[in-house]
Specification:
Radius of gyration: 24 Å
Shape: globular
Structural class: alpha/beta
CATH superfamily of the largest domain: P-loop containing nucleotide triphosphate hydrolases
Number of domains: 2
CATH topology of the largest domain: Rossmann fold
CATH class of the largest domain: Alpha Beta
Strand content: 5-15%
Length: 423
């Protein structure tokens, strides 16, 4: 029987192919001894796009057991043994942490232990769930996508929610970090859903990460937005509250959508929240063409002992480096603070927590606000754009979120603005 340290060494020595790295779903804290070596290896791959020579890995971390490399344990075997040892530790931790309580309050101890064991069970569940079912052949999907790019509209990158950008022939480009911010209740989550649905509607595999909202709630929003793009018309309120809808049409939509191209994650197995490391692991595993993160301010950047500005800097530039390393656009949203009290004015970078660092790291930065006297409209202001110049610095969007009618209104002007111009 191999020791846990030996198995961990075998796992790390076997993380020398993209396939193995994508399949390994764990994080640094899941290791008992060699977590630092794992973190270093992953960061090396993210930075350089290749794996370090094993001789360099051994020199960097001499505590790794060389015999684990010499025995050439198969990755699948080492990984299973790793998961088995981790499960044992977690079960023991769940029981032992309540050992004293068993004598003081056995009923409460039982509840705590059962809750802890239930959380442990999620380690063996998938971290993301398909939005819907459907058969896909990855090779055929790639061939179709390649053909569409050759013969289609000529748009480079991922189609955006803004026709004014798409008509320029450039969407969200590989390696870009796109940042969007607004006050609470303005609609950041709907913007994320529409961005993801637009990409998926155009057959681009997308990973949507929600730090605040569970999958069920996100999926209902996806339903109405994607349905609108596909020519259907459903009410989000009706779906949410169980009111009457056209059941036949809803069934027809669900059968036709079959969007395995859209993956939704609202948790990471065995963790209380999201971290930059766990998101990188998800991305490496599922290889999306587009990543959308709703609520980036709730993501941990690592060392909680660092100053807040250091953690934010590490988070934002870490996301930018990840986008570059995987050659994939990443869109993130965050919210303005109390200084942005005017809901009809786009928040500035200094009204967003560490917004200056976010804008510096981002290739595209946009702010969104409500439109006075027009609840079904939103104003979007581009505060940074990779090319430096846009036909318009601001644009308006139709914001009919209840039935998924979200789209840019090119050339639109609100009534109050036209009145001021006439005056």
């Amino acid at each position: 029987m191999h020791s846990p340290e030996f198995i961990e060494s075998a796992v790390i020595f076997n993380l020398n192919t993209e396939g193995n790295l994508h399949n390994f779903k764990h994080v640094k804290d899941d290791f008992t001894k060699h977590g630092q070596a794992y973190e270093w290896l992953v960061n090396y791959f993210d930075k350089y796009g290749e794996f370090p020579p094993q001789v360099v890995l051994e020199q960097q971390f001499p505590s790794l057991e060389a015999k684990a490399k010499d025995e050439k344990l198969p990755f699948d075997y080492a990984y299973e043994q790793f998961k088995r040892a981790l499960l044992q530790r977690n079960v023991l931790r769940a029981v032992n942490s309540n050992s004293n309580l068993i004598f003081e309050d056995p009923k409460r101890a039982l509840s705590n232990i059962m809750s802890g064991l239930s959380d442990i069970e999620t380690v063996y569940h998938e971290d993301v769930s398909p939005y819907d079912d459907g058969e896909l052949t990855r090779l055929e999907e790639w061939k179709n996508r390649k053909q569409r790019r050759k013969l289609g509209s000529g748009l480079m990158g991922i189609p955006t929610s803004f026709d004014s950008l798409n008509t320029r022939g450039v969407g969200w480009m590989p390696g870009e970090l796109i940042a969007a911010f607004a006050r609470p209740t303005i609609g950041k989550t709907w913007l994320c859903v529409h961005a993801a649905a637009t990409a998926v509607f155009n057959r681009h595999k997308t990973l949507l990460i929600s730090t605040e909202m569970p999958n069920r709630a996100i999926n209902m929003r996806i339903d109405v937005v994607l349905a609108k793009l596909m020519g259907y018309d459903f009410s989000h309120m009706a779906l949410r509250h169980g009111d009457n809808i056209d059941e036949k049409q809803y069934r027809d939509f669900l059968e036709k959508s079959n969007q395995k191209d859209l993956l939704v994650s609202d948790h990471i197995s065995g963790q209380m929240g999201f971290s930059l490391e766990s998101i990188a692991s998800l991305v490496r595993k599922h290889k999306p063409e587009f990543v959308v993160i709703d609520g980036v301010y709730l993501i941990s950047a690592g060392d909680s002992r660092s100053q807040a500005w250091e953690q934010s800097h590490r988070l934002f530039y870490g996301l930018k480096n990840l986008a570059t390393a995987i050659n994939t656009p990443i869109l993130v949203t965050t919210q303005a603070n109390r200084d942005a009290s005017d809901m009809f004015t786009p928040p500035k970078a200094n009204q967003v927590a560490f917004g200056d660092a976010l804008i510096r790291a981002a290739d595209v930065a946009l702010a969104m606000c409500a439109v006075e006297d027009e609840d079904d409209k939103r104003l979007v202001q581009f505060q940074k754009y990779r090319d430096g110049e846009l036909p318009l610095k601001t644009t308006y969007m139709q914001w009919g979120v209840n039935n998924g009618n979200i789209k840019e209104l090119v050339g639109y002007q609100p009534a109050w603005l036209m009145i001021e111009e006439d005056a």
